Task: structure prediction
Amino acid sequence: MKEMVLKKFEELYGNADGAGVYFAPGRVNMIGEHTDYNGGHVFPCALTIGTYAAVKKRTDRKLRFYSMNFEKMGVVESSLDDLTPSDAAGWTNYPKGVMWAFAERGMKMDCGLDIVLNGNIPNGSGLSSSASLEVLTGFYLRDLFGFDVTNVDLALIGQYSENNFNGMNCGIMDQFASAMGKKDNAIFLDTADLSYQYAPLVLDGAKIIVTNSNVKHSLVNSAYNERRSECERALEELKTVVDIKGLGDLSEEQFEADKDAIKDDIRKKRAKHAVYENQRTIRAVEALKNNNLKEFGELMNASHVSLRDDYEVSCDEIDVLVEEAWKVDGVIGSRITGGGFGGCTVSIVKDEAVDTFKEKVGAAYKERVGKNADFYVVEIGDGPSKL
Result:
């Protein structure tokens, strides 16, 4: 990938001498979905797939972007004097948003850049290609301009830009997982205060398989922002009877005792998911520490049911993938992962069942949905780096 972006850089811009090559990973979330903007816990890990960039400083204020994943757009030209979002800017709104967010914090670039990108995260798969791109941008800006920011800051800046520049009300999980990834570890993150610990995820005798439904999700235009506002309203209603900062502060028992403060059945279901999913995530990490992979898998399955029925962010195609996975001997757990409305499932599958899993789930999906599913046996990798 390094050679590919440098070659393309030279082809487009004439000379790759002095260009730096950078990488930031995508992520998969093992459990703890839609809890990150509700003050709950999440359990993601960085992947070894992600986004690569060759970047070189210019002598003027011009910005030139090119993505090998969106070749039809060609070189997209912009300027440091025009850091505003637009439909025409397409994918470049993500790096431009990060540049804008740095400037908002008083860290202004003193020259433009030539940039070539290439990613091996399937677009729209729910494996956080956008967060990967945001963290990557922050990482190379820090390196090139000497900005004084930590990797946690890179995650926060990425989230801020996506919320305020791109209009996507995401939580912190995706950017945090990309910025803070550690090989062979998942990150047990409390999104209420950003305290975190690494938990080894070396699965003896099993693999993590991500299955892509090939149903594209577009979160900005989807019900994602709607779910967030439903939870915020439910939280305000609960605050009239109980002293909490976020839904993640409640146990299941407290929620059941006070849930009638929520005056709408839909909001009640959304809040229930946020509370129960948070507790599932805490229990899942505990199960992992005790080498109880069976319980971890059962909690993954319960997470899917909750996302399907209470949070209603699954879709028919994803439900088929999960149902078919549950039928295969050797599948420890399977659930939707990511924002929802398409994208991917994540499954833990015993080594001896991996081929059968791909074969059976793939065939059943083709038969029931009429589409092909793609399977990735994923590895857990580190955070961003300069190559």
Observations:
- The chain is about 40% helix and 20% strand.
- Residues 50 and 120 are 6 Å apart (CA to CA).
- The domain at 2-201 is CATH 3.30.230.10 (Ribosomal Protein S5; domain 2).
- The chain has a mean pLDDT of 94.
